[in-house]
């Protein structure tokens, strides 16, 4: 190196662009339920990464197994990610304990039974058991749910940290998918009732009238780590009887979690 040359800096982020890891995650984030297969051009557009860089990164992800390519050359999410995701204790471990209770509840209601956990200011649907006669589902396994306008979400929000509740209550919230405004005062009363009764009853008019009844699943130290809910047509709902069944199942899951020392 000559005296006029600047010293070489190692181990620092390049002055332009995102780190490689961020760009790789952006490629994976380009996929969703409506876009399960993407061409390279689609991948570039949806991730915001130039086509040449997207091709290089996608090739590395294919090599690792995070992405796969079909016979038309389109990219899909790879099976190796399924194996990694199955290791998440808040998902798979909880799911294994909850499934027998969810199955019993599904036999009783012949509709949807959902297991939901909180991720920040959203719920995540960990699993769902549905009868072939059930209503058309709005959410599928892995989808993110609004905390303020789903039965399971209301339970998780009611027991969320104060700062999470206040962040949502400070917003202009609407009930989805009807897009009806929800006042913060009304939502506060709803959350207080959920904590008092240990159950949430949520009604929705669109796309079809339905009722969701949800109860908390508790781990160690009386900490709510998930919500169990059922979704049924409104016209065939006895909310009081359904609440008892959901609370009993959620209590059974909580008991097994406690016996196994599950910390959530």
Automatic annotation (TrEMBL):
Domain (HTH iclR-type) ranges: 18-79
| SMART domains attached to this UniProt entry | HTH_ICLR (SM00346)
GO process terms (BP): negative regulation of DNA-templated transcription
Tell me the domain of life.
Bacteria
The molecular function terms in GO held by this entry are: DNA binding; DNA-binding transcription factor activity
Q: Which residues form the IclR-ED domain?
A: 80-259
Q: Which UniProt keywords apply?
A: DNA-binding, Transcription, Transcription regulation
Q: Which Pfam families match?
A: HTH_IclR, IclR_C
Q: Output this protein's name.
A: IclR family transcriptional regulator
